Amino acid sequence: MNWKKVLGYGALIWVVAYLAICALVGLGVETQAWVAYVGPLLVLLVGWYAAGQVAAKSVSSGLGVGVVWVIEFAILDYLLTIPFVEVGTAFFTQWHVVVGYVLALVLPALRASTKK
Prior knowledge:
Order of helices and strands: HHHH
Number of helices: 4
Number of strands: 0
Strand content: under 5%
Distance between the termini: 18 Å
Helix content: over 70%
Largest sheet: none
Structural class: mainly alpha
């Protein structure tokens, strides 16, 4: 497994979702209900692509990639998101954050299971 690739694609997923949410906050629409769906949707789309690029050879190695991505997301969120949100570390309990983390965990394994 190419761990630089794993870490790089994990960062890519997080950065795409983070920048999109930051742009929506900048536009002043963060209180709209649909905004909560943007992060998980981007994790799903970019994560599916990234999981294909990482190309885990088995479901178990895909889960390993997912664990690395979740840890990476948590570190990045702790350093770059928590200081700017009013809810503090309760951010990690919001449904859209949990869904994004679960997707990051399972997508590499799911992608590995669909290989022929």
